[in-house]
Hints:
single chain; 0% strand; mainly alpha
Amino acid sequence: MAFPPQQPPSQDQIYAQMVAESCPVKSCLSGVGGFLLGGVFGMFMSSFEMASTDPAVLEQPLRQQLKHTAKDMAQKSFSMAKNFAVVGAIFSGTECMIESYRAKNDLYNSMSAGCITGAVLAARAGPQATAMGCMGFAAFSTARIWEYYCNGFQRLNFTPSSDTRQPIILSHSKSKENVPKAFNDGLRR
């Protein structure tokens, strides 16, 4: 079976790809995504907090209490949305610039971008906080990316047998000799 010949991309497609892969666009998209995610997360988290412990608010009618709670939730949600947007934009922009400079896409880009992001966010609190922010963000970035590189998105419900190179052979016979023990254990769960 022959495949039809591929046509080279047009100039518009090349330009659109260059714009989409540019660092400012990536940084802005991460900022917008962080703002939206932070808003949802802030709304969710603020719903668990007591809106006000002031007895004057608790003595007001229900409609006023709900209005006060909604206003408080909106303020906390907006604050968290701004924080997530800043973190996303700084991290994404820094990682993109490091990746462009190094011309590699590897674990060290994320680790360096995490360090720079943590340091920038903690810079106002002094040098010790800057160092701790750098280490914390770098460790978190490295752990998340390392987990992605090592495990990917595949999650298995059973533990592999001691010999992971052993093929899984399913036969039509009733015997379970050809099926690894770990596979049978996984089916029983």
